[in-house]
Amino acid sequence: MVPAQAVAAPPTPGPAEVVPGKGTSTPSLVGGIREDAGAAGSAADAATRHLAEKKSRYRIDRPDRDLAPIRAVTSGTGETVRLQQKHRGVDVLGGQYVVRMEKKNGKRVVTGTSGKYFTALTTPTTPDISEELAVERAVDATLAQLDRDGFAVDTGDEGDAPPLSGTARGLVVLPKGPGVLTHHVTVRGTDPATRQPVLREVYIDAQAGYPVLQYSGIKTFGTAGGGSSASGTKAAASGARSLADGSAVKGSGVKFDGTTVELDLTHDASNNQYVMRDAARMRDGSKASISTWDARKKSVDEVSKQWPADVLEFRSANPAFDKEATEAGAVDAHWAAGKVYDYYKSVHGRDSLDGRGMAIDSMVGVTLYGTPYVNAFWDGAKMVYGGGDAEYRPFSASLDVVGHEMTHGVVENSADLVYAGQSGALNEAIADYFGNAIDTDAHGIAMDSPESGLLGEGLCRTKSPRACATRDMNDGRTTSKGFLGVDFATDNGGVHLNSTIFSGALWDIRKDLNRTLADRIVYRALTEYMTPLDGFTEGRNAVIAAAKDLKVSAKDLNAVTRAFNGHGIVPDWELAIGVDTDRLLGRLNTVDSRVGAGGGWWVASKSNESGSEPYSIWAGRADGTGEKQLISPNDGRYHANPVTDGKTVVWVAYGRGGYDLLSRPLAGGPVKTLTHSRYGFHQQAKVDGDVVVFVQLFRRGVSQLGYLRKGDKEPTWVDDGVGRRDAIGQHSLKGGKIAYGTRVYKGHGKYEYSTKVLDLASGKTTVMPQLGTPLGVGQTAITSRYVFWTVDEVADQGQRAVRRANLDGTNVMDISKEQGADALYPEGLTASEDAVTVSSRTPGTPGPRSNETLPKLWQFSADGSRRARMSCNRGEQGLPAALSGTQVVWTDSTTGYADLVTRNRPAGNCG
């Protein structure tokens, strides 16, 4: 807690504890009060009345107008009211305020408040772009996120069903500074490359149409694969109506570990079958049930988009289910769902995941188009479990996994923590905590056991528990030693990568306190204090305040505080993160915009300090001298993806009328429109002297590589005869020569890949020889002597070779091999005359929690004889841009924000 401060009308029995909010006049937490709320009206009425009467404390002008009740929960004498902030009638993302009260003997008193109410919002709420355009832009932004090879994503032939579709969810204000009005769009479908299900929450700026925020809504356990949070409905399921008069019976089954367990079933007298439907467990007159469904013939995309009509609950001719149900994971799923329900009911008094007796449904045995699906997820209405593979058991065969996924349902129906960044890491941390608490207690594991904090350790068929575990809450990670700053495109901003920092603190509390008391503290913090955009510091404050509410001893309260201190979760912990780079431009506050460099200059897109303004293009000298220059006009459009050759800056402007490719001399002068596109430009353009190269997008996934020379009024298109599934991209430019990759569709889902160099002076195109048959080619980089590119020729885990050839195609060699201990996972590359720099996950990565799973920069000499890490910063190092010699600029997220940084030489091996 921060020191208490004076407030109006001192409460009884002592002064209020007030934690100020960040960027708002409304406190983030008020405790230590007992203030009369009046007995009249509902709990929501009393909560709103309290906030209005204490206007000097809360600074909420019209609670009756700007706060809408979400839910009121009564537990004994306690009442908790959640209120959603509205700005001029539009929902504010994460704007929730919670009022806690006690009602006794007909009287109400307010005992505390917490949350986020943003007092600085002034943005107009009339959009300039239509929902239709917002949906189109959201789908395009999602396709761009799915781009892995540098080509526009293939969207199929004419007449094919599109891989993605968007649904408008209405206007939402993002609480950045004065606010950003957006169209919220949910994008669903299937990734055309991996065939994994896609669910993205995309927020499109309602004035210019730029995707200012996007993150995945898939809440997976986090091993492999994906999921979706489409809710679906059970009403259409053919088995959902046939057992209305069935009778509750006891049965049995064998779990995957060989243990025989009792199962609560329903007997279907009409065909004398026993069905995995537990209709007796949910008491208090509820008609809901716990059901386990057979989805072994379904792919994950089918169950994540809807509830298939032909999916039935698992059934048997006798109440003892056989080996088939065991191997499908059905026995484990049904037994575990009952255990998790019982835990929340008996320990916390919660009736099912929503607290109101909702049905609990599990689908087991899901595949990925007939191949193994190795993951599990909560989809907003049900649990979905993959059937596993040769190494992994069905994902329902681990009680902590089931508890984790079901807890996502509890989180969603209480604090609803946004599944991105720190709030998403809190979401994962709480799911891990309760999932593992249930599992640990059920198996009698001592809290001081080194194995007690392992998640998913029982899923493997051959690996040891520690080698199998996905996460370990005893891993000792702290904010100063373990926090990984990443972009939202990576693990939704680190929701799994950073979760054990917070869950580790919670687990330490459970070690030091009585287990049940610790669980009650965390549950109370989640359900009565936390709100959707809370980060680690707010989470700490919520847990400490909940412990005080439960009147824990001074010793136990010290243990709670000590746990957070031990994991570095203290106020302003973000300021203590160090880096080994020179910062050129801090806190870019941009999304999906790359940086450029050339001729001794850098160029980057940047918003203001709060991230509320449309992006502008800035330029500066790479040696850090001189003043930074504003290049783009302040015209309400988003200016992004700039490049420069040290003389001219080229970039794309996003507006409601489409996309413009613009240019302006660094020395000053008018902004020139080079060309306009209805559907946008793929990747960054390139500029060198009088030539500008770019990839323009057209509908149905068609992309074309074009160039403009000084004086040209229309682009010249390269390989103009590309088909709908063909693509050209990954381009680079130097000295009038363009290097690029091509993908030509050969039918039956097969493609032919090439890397080419076009000499604009002669018109000659040279096809670079390959050392094998490419399964994919990546980004190119060209210098006055060489062309570099990445290539995949072996079906593996994503490793690629870094290949080099002379401009005429001779002397082809790999400066980094595709296979072997040192193989890289390239995401992009850039080159100067002296060195080539590759953005890649580190080879030989030890595990899914390491910072080395994030993109790092590796630099090679042009002949491949020298190799070193460009920087030892532990956060994500974005796609780089080369300058002269060994100097590189890039976006680095180590500090938790994307900064433009540079180094003049490699840092070494970072061992």
UniProtKB/TrEMBL annotation:
<dbReference type="Pfam" id="PF01447">
    <property type="entry name" value="Peptidase_M4"/>
</dbReference>
<keyword id="KW-0732">Signal</keyword>
<keyword id="KW-0482">Metalloprotease</keyword>
<feature type="compositionally biased region" description="Low complexity">
    <location>
        <begin position="1"/>
        <end position="20"/>
    </location>
</feature>
<keyword id="KW-0862">Zinc</keyword>
<protein>
    <submittedName>
        <fullName>M4 family metallopeptidase</fullName>
    </submittedName>
</protein>
<feature type="region of interest" description="Disordered">
    <location>
        <begin position="1"/>
        <end position="28"/>
    </location>
</feature>
<feature type="domain" description="Peptidase M4">
    <location>
        <begin position="251"/>
        <end position="412"/>
    </location>
</feature>
<feature type="domain" description="FTP">
    <location>
        <begin position="67"/>
        <end position="102"/>
    </location>
</feature>
<feature type="region of interest" description="Disordered">
    <location>
        <begin position="835"/>
        <end position="854"/>
    </location>
</feature>
<keyword id="KW-0479">Metal-binding</keyword>
<dbReference type="InterPro" id="IPR011042">
    <property type="entry name" value="6-blade_b-propeller_TolB-like"/>
</dbReference>
<dbReference type="InterPro" id="IPR027268">
    <property type="entry name" value="Peptidase_M4/M1_CTD_sf"/>
</dbReference>
<dbReference type="InterPro" id="IPR050728">
    <property type="entry name" value="Zinc_Metalloprotease_M4"/>
</dbReference>
<keyword id="KW-0645">Protease</keyword>
<dbReference type="InterPro" id="IPR011096">
    <property type="entry name" value="FTP_domain"/>
</dbReference>
<keyword id="KW-0378">Hydrolase</keyword>
<dbReference type="InterPro" id="IPR013856">
    <property type="entry name" value="Peptidase_M4_domain"/>
</dbReference>
<dbReference type="Pfam" id="PF07504">
    <property type="entry name" value="FTP"/>
</dbReference>
<comment type="similarity">
    <text>Belongs to the peptidase M4 family.</text>
</comment>
<feature type="compositionally biased region" description="Polar residues">
    <location>
        <begin position="837"/>
        <end position="853"/>
    </location>
</feature>
<dbReference type="Pfam" id="PF02868">
    <property type="entry name" value="Peptidase_M4_C"/>
</dbReference>
<dbReference type="InterPro" id="IPR023612">
    <property type="entry name" value="Peptidase_M4"/>
</dbReference>
<dbReference type="InterPro" id="IPR001570">
    <property type="entry name" value="Peptidase_M4_C_domain"/>
</dbReference>
<feature type="domain" description="Peptidase M4 C-terminal">
    <location>
        <begin position="415"/>
        <end position="569"/>
    </location>
</feature>
